[in-house]
Amino acid sequence: MSTAVRTTSRTPAAAAGRPRPRPSRRRGWRALGYAALVAVAFLYLYPFLVQLVTSVKTDADATQDPLALVPDPLTWGAFERLAQTDFPLWFTNSVVVTLVVTAGRVLFCSLAGYALSRIDFSGRAGLFGLVLAIMAVPPVVLLIPKFLVLNQLQLYDTYAALMVPLMADGAGIFIMKQFFDRIPVSIEEAARIDGAGTLRTFWSVVLPMARPAVITLTILAFQASWNELPHYIVASQDPDLYTLTKGVASLTSGQLGSGNQFPLTMAAALLMTIPVAVVFVVFQRFFVTGANEGGVKG
């Protein structure tokens, strides 16, 4: 007991006698921390910088020094050659498929999330558990079953094959259900007293209140369908149905002839990145708000 008393009496004194770090030393540690952060940020951004610079290089310059960040000479030839390929067709297909898939996923995931959150039916808890279980299944496992189903339904090599299987997913249903759970039931009861049915209450009252969740789901669905590749590979083989991801992948496999074609492939990848970046920057504020509210509820 006496040992414990001595220990507690010495600790504050030792702490009080500990020399404080000098201001110059604190500034040194802070500068070292900033330097480490800048180094990590540069390593993270370096592949994107290589992509950006390589797209304005010549084939010879890109082959001789592919990681250099200074083009010698600077040329827009890769973009001019890209315009003479099927890139405009791939871009159009990607825009059409992405817009339809995004709209469908937002609608169907919202309806499913509302049903699991509000409508009392037998097996609701089990069905929600099944949705959560599907989220744990690797998407690559479902590629062959998707191909078999599309082939049996005679949808293979059609636009419907590219769009329909992507119009609903477990993560979207989970996000919408979590948001609908936060909305007070009393608001819906007031709408029903005024004579609104279930669908009218969902569309006119509940869905507008879940705007952060809808915007979050819209961004996620847009990014997922724009960047999708495995599903498009098993859903079609017609070159007229190629999307950007499938078309750019064909460029990297040497479709346009001999040589590595680094500037051409990097130019295609750069143009492919722009729409997703624009969507994220425009809706970033809503995306962060929605993610935070979903995280608090979860």
From TrEMBL:
The keyword Nucleotide-binding does not apply. Residues 91-283 form the ABC transmembrane type-1 domain. CDD domains: TM_PBP2 (cd06261). It is found in: Cell membrane. GO terms for cellular component: plasma membrane. InterPro entries: MetI-like (IPR000515), MetI-like_sf (IPR035906). Residues 1-18 have a biased composition (Low complexity). Its main location: membrane. Keywords: Cell membrane, Membrane, Transmembrane, Transmembrane helix, Transport. One of its GO terms (biological process) is transmembrane transport. Residues 1-26 are annotated as: Disordered. The chain crosses the membrane at residues 31-49, 90-115, 127-148, 160-180, 201-222, 262-283. It is a multi-pass membrane protein. SUPFAM superfamilies: MetI-like. It comes from the Bacteria. Belongs to the binding-protein-dependent transport system permease family. This is Carbohydrate ABC transporter permease. It comes from Vallicoccus soli.
